C-alpha cells in the first residue's frame, strides 16, 4: 500500500491508548510524513472531512487518514501506512501480512470500540513501550547500516 506524504491522521486524543500510539509514532517520524489531528473535541470540524461527507462520529468509531493526494484510508490501512511512515517497517509488515491482515481487520473494530476500557487496564503504556522499543531497534539497525554492519534481510 502506498500513500503520498504527509499522511494526515484523524485520531481520538482523549483516548490514552490512541494518544500513546500516535504520539510514539510521531516521535519517530524523522521524515515528517505524519500529521496528527485530534478529532476528539465535540465540536470538531474539518473542511476535508466535510467535503468527503465523513461525520465526526465515524472518526470516533474508526481511525481515518487522508494523504496529500486526497485519498482516504480507514482502520488497518492507516496503521500500516503510519508505521511505515515512521520507519517501523517490521511493524508495518505485520499490519500488512496477508495471513494476519484478516485478523487485524476483524480485531481492530472491537479494540476501537473498547479503547477506553482497555486504556483503564493500562494497555496504552504497554503498547507505547512496544512501539518505542521497535523504533529504537529500527534506529539501531539504520545506524548499523550507515557504518557498514548492516544485517537486514
Short description:
The chain has helices at 16-27, 47-52, 56-61, 76-85, 89-96, 101-113, 115-120, 123-146, and strands spanning 7-11, 34-38, 64-66, 72-74.
CA-to-CA gap between the ends?
A: 20 Å
Specify the number of helices. Answer: 8
Average pLDDT taken over every residue: 88
Describe the biggest sheet? 4 strands, mixed
Question: Strand sequence of the main sheet, in spatial order?
Answer: 2-1-3-4
Overall geometric form: globular
Total discrete domains: 1
Helix content: 55-70%
Structural class: alpha+beta
| Strand element count | 4
What does this protein look like?
- This protein has helices spanning 16-27, 47-52, 56-61, 76-85, 89-96, 101-113, 115-120, 123-146; strands spanning 7-11, 34-38, 64-66, 72-74.
- The mean pLDDT is 88.
- It has 153 residues and is of the alpha+beta class.
- A hairpin with a 5-residue loop joins strand 3 (64-66) and strand 4 (72-74).
- It has one domain (7-146).
- It has 8 helices and 4 strands, in the order βαβααββααααα.
- Helix 1 (16-27) runs parallel beside helix 8 and helix 4 packs antiparallel against helix 5 (89-96).
- A 4-stranded mixed beta sheet has the order 2-1-3-4.
Amino acid at each position: 500500500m502506498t500513500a503520498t506524504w504527509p499522511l494526515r491522521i484523524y485520531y481520538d486524543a482523549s483516548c490514552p491508548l490512541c494518544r500513546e500510539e500516535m504520539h510514539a509514532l510521531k516521535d519517530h517520524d524523522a521524515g515528517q510524513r505524519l500529521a496528527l489531528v485530534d478529532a476528539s473535541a465535540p465540536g470538531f470540524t474539518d473542511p476535508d472531512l466535510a467535503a468527503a461527507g465523513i461525520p465526526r462520529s465515524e472518526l470516533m468509531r474508526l481511525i481515518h487518514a487522508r494523504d496529500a493526494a486526497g485519498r482516504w484510508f480507514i482502520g488497518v490501512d492507516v496503521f500500516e501506512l503510519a508505521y511505515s511512515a515512521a520507519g517501523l517497517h517490521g511493524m508495518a509488515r505485520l499490519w500488512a501480512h496477508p495471513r494476519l491482515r484478516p485478523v487485524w481487520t476483524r480485531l481492530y473494530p472491537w479494540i476501537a470500540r473498547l479503547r477506553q476500557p482497555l486504556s483503564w487496564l493500562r494497555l496504552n503504556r504497554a503498547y507505547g513501550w512496544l512501539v518505542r522499543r521497535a523504533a529504537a531497534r529500527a534506529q539501531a539497525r539504520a545506524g548499523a547500516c550507515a557504518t557498514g554492519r548492516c544485517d537486514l534481510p
